[in-house]
Amino acid sequence: MAEVGSTAHAASNQPQWRPRFNPWLIALVVTLASFMEVLDTSIANVALPHIAGGLSSSEDEATWVLTSYLVSNAIILPLSGWFSVLIGRKRFYMVCVAMFTLSSFLCGIAPSLALLVLFRVLQGIGGGGLQPSEQAILADTFLPRQRGMAFAIYGIAVVTAPAIGPTLGGWITDNFTWRWIFFINIPVGIVSMILTSVMVDDPPYFTKDRMQKLKGKLQVDYWGIIFIALGLGFLQIVLDKGERDDWWASNFIRTCIVISVAGLILAVYWELTHKDPVVDLSLLKNRSFAIPAFLMFMVGVILLGSTVLIPQYLQLVMGYSATEAGLAISPGGILVMCMLPFVGILLGKVEARWLIGLGLAITSLALIHMTTFNTEISYRYAAVARCFQAAGLAFLFVPINTAAYAFVPPGKNNAASGLINLARNIGGSVGISLVTTILDRRSQFHQNRLIEFTTPLNPRFNASMHAITGVFGPGYSGNGPYALMFRNLERQAETLSYIDCFWVLGVGFAVLIPLVFLIKKSTPGRGAAAH
């Protein structure tokens, strides 16, 4: 641990390599493709019914379009650092952009569901290498005092893309066809390829370190790749399909859990003992990297979990359309875009730990505030609540990334970026799976409890039934009043289950605040503090 910190400090005293082009232009170039890749994790969600209908399959079968992408994406994320060493970071990034762009075209023309799933696997492999490579490029391109602003540009793409994905996907599907949600990646990918080939270079120390490893006959860690693929791949299937298949009640899910646990245990043991590990897990021995990685995992839980909760609540409980529900979270995305540069500037003056603590506190309070949701809230109330939460997220993403890289030596930036992005992506999958499970189980619980009060012995029930029957007019003898009463009961039970979700997420974030101050102190704008 001390060795890592001292290495980072020593590296910071060496002359900083400077790129040939303006670093801010490079940041915009590498963010282009990453934005489209993050967008693709959520844009296809609303198009599933159209995909299923267009390819003559069931909607349940069509969910493999989402699962296949997430599985291949999760597998490649931690391996990206190793592939960067093997073929060069710039070359690896360009290969990923090319694969992502080509597979997007193939997804758009896929004639069957089986081929679409196959092409989505290829798209996930290409997309999975983009974010870690971009973060490593930014970490090497910018001076430590500029990293806050650099990560702010990256954060705008990563935080806002999941928010606008469902809305954009719905608009494209309604006005064109579902195939265009893949075709829109093509021009962006081509532009990114051209600009990257011209403007981006591998820094000399990365190239020198890479050549030394290759001359030392870098061994291909086949078993590490296999164990990681099994562990992360089947974990992603469990998280994506678990609630739909009723978790332990499904033989398929139980089998996936066993394979995933065995794969992850073997992967950790193998990678910690292998001479040339494909994933450098030794970084996690340094608490000043391990804690930010865990916090980034929790940011993924909140970011993706709440992005599911609020639109779903507005649609299923409040009766808004999919487009209206998507627009309710858009102001929060705009607020994050405006705040991230401000947070980047603050990082040059304020220690990252304090900003992370502030972000956790704001996000926790915002989620607890959402427990005041009821069936009578206005559209504006929901949008403002989302903005409150977005303000907290703005103080988390960039400071966490900055804190994570403060004690990482430049030669390990690729490995660090792979682990950080893996943590966020797995956190997002856990968040979606968690809130979906809580909603389903707690909705049943609250419905059973509320039904206990729907009895003629309850004066309030009798008064409500009398009022509802009056709506249908005198002499009405059908079941309409009972059906309306049951629908109201369902809405109340669903609302209570959403409130339970907000409580769990809010309290969960609050208890993380003390963890922040276990990270080593760093000097604002400089990275690791001198010891």
Q: Specify the CATH class of the largest domain.
A: Mainly Alpha
Low-confidence stretches: 1-14
Count the strands?
2
Secondary-structure-based class equals mainly alpha
* Mean pLDDT across every amino acid position: 81
- Summarize the main sheet: 2 strands, antiparallel
Helix and strand pattern: HHHHHHHHHHHHHHHHHHHHHHHHEE
Helix content: over 70%
Shape: globular
How far from one another are the termini?
13 Å
CATH superfamily of the largest domain: MFS general substrate transporter like domains
Strand content: under 5%
CATH topology category name of the largest domain: Growth Hormone, Chain: A
Question: Count the helices. How many?
Answer: 24
Radius of gyration: 25 Å
Strand order of the largest sheet: 1-2
Task: Tell me the CATH architecture of the largest domain.
Answer: Up-down Bundle
Number of domains: 2
Could you characterize the architecture of this molecule?
75% of the residues lie in helices and 1% in strands. It is an all-alpha fold and 531 residues long. The chain has two domains: 2-7 and 20-218 and 276-445 and 492-528, Growth Hormone, Chain: A; 221-275, no CATH class. The longest helix has 39 residues, at 413-451. Residues 1-14 have low confidence and may be disordered.
